[in-house]
Amino acid sequence: MIPRPSRAGRRSLVAAVAALLALAACAPEDATREAGWQIDEGAFGNPTMNNLLVLSGQRPFVLDLSRRFAAEVPATVTFEFNSAALDAAARAALDRQASWIRQFPEVRFSVYGHTDLVGSEGYNRALGQRRANAVVNYLVSRGVERARLDALVSLGKTQPVVATPLPERVNRRAVTEVSGFVQRHPTVLNGKYAEIVFREYIASAQQPHPPLGGYPPPAPAD
Question: What is the tens place of the pLDDT at every residue in 50-85?
Fold first, then answer.
């Protein structure tokens, strides 16, 4: 039979439990979240993916590719107020994204939908999702494999570019980002991440082809 603790022992146990609860209440928010959460607040799976990339040594290469993608093509498209329709400027930007993405078949991407600060949280979450869906569907229509578009994440009105309660187009956007590698791709299986990062992006591939007769002759000099 287990002896019952004395009154003094019970008081000590209660005090210890109270102290632990107080510490938990004072702990910073970071202590209750998964490691890497601050890298990307798009969804729970993103910090987990970040940890995987760090542990596998892929994270620096993903960051390098992210910088390349953002520098070489427009990563953001914007929308009219209360709309998820892609206008001509958005389609032109996504054509360039699709051209880049097709030349890096080992790479995966995420699309994040955003809104301005007008409207309720719930409505804007749904609107941001529709915007992300519109971008993904367009990229797929331009030959990008759907399986390489990792996530459709709506951040709603939580991350405005300009913090104003008024309608603001730069906040009404969808952003495409490099999120990782296709793990079953032969190049990735061989660990050739640097080879992927430094592969040339042939920007001329997005230019219109010349007429069948070749480029027109230069205009005569004055």
Answer: 555 544 567 788 888 899 999 999 999 999 999 999
Tens digits of residue pLDDT in 47-57? 555 555 544 56
Sign of the CA dihedral 185, 188, 190, 193?
positive
Q: Is residue 129 part of a domain?
A: yes
Pick the closest to residue 71 from 203, 179, 168 (CA basis).
203
Q: Three-state SS for 128?
A: helix
Q: How many domains does the chain have?
A: 1
CB-count burial class (<10 Å; 0-12, 13-18, 19+) for 36:
middle
Q: How far apart are CA 39 and CA 46, in angstroms?
A: 8
- Whether 181 is covered by a domain: the verdict is yes
Q: Which pLDDT tens digit goes with each residue over 12-55?
A: 655 655 554 554 444 443 443 333 333 444 443 455 555 555 44
Host domain of residue 62: 36-195
149-156/107-114 β-pairing: parallel
Residue 201 falls within a domain, yes or no?
Answer: no
Return the CATH number at 94: 3.30.1330.60
